[in-house]
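Handout, page 2. Input:
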Amino acid sequence: MAILTILEAGTARLADQANSNNLKKPETYVATASEPSAVARPRTSGLSVYIDSYSTEEETGQLLNALRINGSHGFQQALSELKTRGRVVIPGRAGYEAKFIRQSPTSSGREARIVLDRRMSFMESYYGETSKDYGVSAVEISLNGQNKGDGILYPLSKLHFDQKNHQLVLENIENRPWRLTNVR
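Output:
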């Protein structure tokens, strides 16, 4: 399990100006994604991230409330109703709409966190009882001052809110996220 501070209860941890929707121009990042494998060499592929704008504090609050009141399924419903803020694309595939994108400053640059509404194939929806509960994907990218860095892709995830610690907890179905390297 990973603890994600994409949504923080009661505090606006991320600077409003860091999440300004007034991007001068869209941001584009490319990376090498490595799928972990317990038996063989990891598979790798390219990954592109397109950011048109960042999510607002109001959208953050809507998602937090949906998660608190209706759990993971409520979060997914609220996420699907948000405006598309960007895309995450693996070459040769249609890509995924990024409905929630936040960034925060770090001591060496910034971190971008992206939540994707994961589409399921017909067969997965029909037979995949367990995977149906893992309806979102998430991406974390750490960038230095030159906009280069690394990150993590959580392809099959579900969310719940830890009331005690006031944190969003991201549970990945396989417990082995994909590594993103050479982000630039």
